[in-house]
Structures are given as structure tokens and as C-alpha cells.
Amino acid sequence: MSSWLYPANIKHYDVFTAFKQASVAWPINSKIELGDIVYFYISAPHQNIQFVGTVKKLNISEAEIQKRTLPFVRTQNAEAPKKRFMLLGNIRALKPVFANSLNFVNLKCNGLNGALMGPRKLDNNELLFNYVREHDNGV
């Protein structure tokens, strides 16, 4: 089981409403596997990790993607490439005191290199992995 840090852009996707659901479809942009843990870094103006979920299923059907994703999409891209999607479950919001500790400045001071433009495998960065786990109120 690995842990990942995925960015979530609130300009394009209503993360806050979607992550209130029991499960969420999310594009796969990494070598993620069943059972992996995914932390979600929310874009500006929030700029912190606010949600975490577990990969429950890989390569979900197009019908399931539409059911679980389209209601929360804010911008449409007519030329969107076909992507693989995963189904995330056990989604929970981090308590604000913990999420505030996981802001961009603190993440940078604790091992995050550069802007978070795509997924990062936390297991590959021991300093960042330990910092995130230390501030995860569900662990």
C-alpha cells in the first residue's frame, strides 16, 4: 500500500461537494494500486491538504465515471482525452486544525519540491510522507 498526494483544482471541479459522497471517481495520473491512500491538495485560495481517500477500484466504467464525476465538473473540455479513472472510498475531510498545518508553505518546508502540478508518491519522499502522516487526524 502506497500513499499519494494528488492536486485538486476547485476552478474545474467542485471538490467540496463531490467529497461528501460515499465514493468519488478520479482520473488516474500515476501508477496507483488498489488500497493506496490518496491525499488531496486543494488549489488556491485554500492551498492545503483537506481530504484523504482509499483506492477501491481501478479502471471504472464510463457510465460510473459519468455518474460520479459529471455532476461536479465546473468546466467542460470538448477535446478531453480518454483517461483511466479510479473509484475512491472511505473519503474523509481532515479537521481544519490539521488541514491548516498541511498548507503549501509547511509542505514546502517539509519536503515538497516545487509546485504541485501532478500526483506525487509520498513514499518516495520520507520527510514529506512523515509530515503528512503526522498531521492526518485519522491515522
How would you characterize this protein structure?
By secondary structure, the chain is α+β, with helices and mostly antiparallel strands. Helices cover 24% and strands 27% of the residues. It has five helices and six strands. It has helices at residues 15-18, 62-69, 96-101, 104-109, 126-134, and strands spanning 3-8, 24-27, 37-42, 48-58, 85-93, 120-121. It has a six-stranded mixed beta sheet with strand order 2-5-4-3-1-6. β3 (37-42) and β4 form a beta hairpin. The radius of gyration is 14 Å and the shape is globular. The mean pLDDT is 89.
Q: What class would the helix/strand composition place it in?
A: alpha+beta
Are there runs of 5+ residues with pLDDT below 50, and where?
none
Element pattern in H and E: EHEEEHEHHEH
Q: Determine the N-to-C terminus distance.
A: 15 Å
Largest sheet: 6 strands, mixed
Spatial ordering of strands, largest sheet:
2-5-4-3-1-6
Q: What is the number of E strands? A: 6
What Rg is obtained from the alpha carbons, in whole angstroms? 14 Å
Average pLDDT, all residues: 89
Sheet-strand content, in percent, reads 25-35%
Shape: globular
- Tally of alpha and pi helices: 5
Question: Helical percent range?
Answer: 10-25%
